[in-house]
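Case study 2.
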Amino acid sequence: MTRPIRRLTLVLTLLLMGTLSAQYRGGTPNSDDEGEWHFARLVYEQSSYGRRRGGNSFDTDYPDAEIHLRQGLERLTRIDLGGDTLIRPVDENIMSYPWLYAVEVGHWYLDDDDAAMLREYLLRGGFLMVDDFWGDSEWAVFEESMLRVFPDRPIVEIPDTDPLMTLVYDVDKSIQIPGRGYIQSGVTWQNGGRVPYWRGIYDDDGRLMVAINFNMDLGDAWEHADDPWYPEPMTGLAIRYAVNYVLYAMTH
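Prediction:
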């Protein structure tokens, strides 16, 4: 890459981050278009655990993950799709979105107000998918905030018989969906997270409220769906999971 191109890339990156800051500073949605489903991404504060590469964690894979997942849903479902939304837990507009995505939750922090609003959202029918966190240390950070949301509800393994796993596609829970680093190293895990786990939190009626993708990275598989070096079977599996998740959120 030549020096002028590097400079242009840096300028565009800074402009994007400035735009992101403007969009989520007030905790309001950044998309006003019509549609029955939007890709709603949770904006959260950083935990003291920090982030390996600095900056924020909530915007990892943004916006390519949104773009490619929406393209997949457009091809594979009849959902009336809207645009993308960045939203804070305490924003009352969160109730308008049946499906909420939080990435790198091994670095998040939810205070009591965040937790109370997210709890109300989930108990009123909302669905939260968390993704891309690895190993015991990141699990501990995730669990600390999640316990503020539901101190009285256990995190359990999602059984193979759960409708989430068979709603549209029968998905293979034994496959670990890796981040992009897998391509260089050939290792599908990081931070000690060798085994993938599909866990969740249920309401009193057996509805799954929180889908926990632990030791895997569906967001990277969506983000790199158009990159020839990322394995297509992994992208295909991640999108099939997303189809199940989105339709589950909208029908349960």
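The mean pLDDT is 86.
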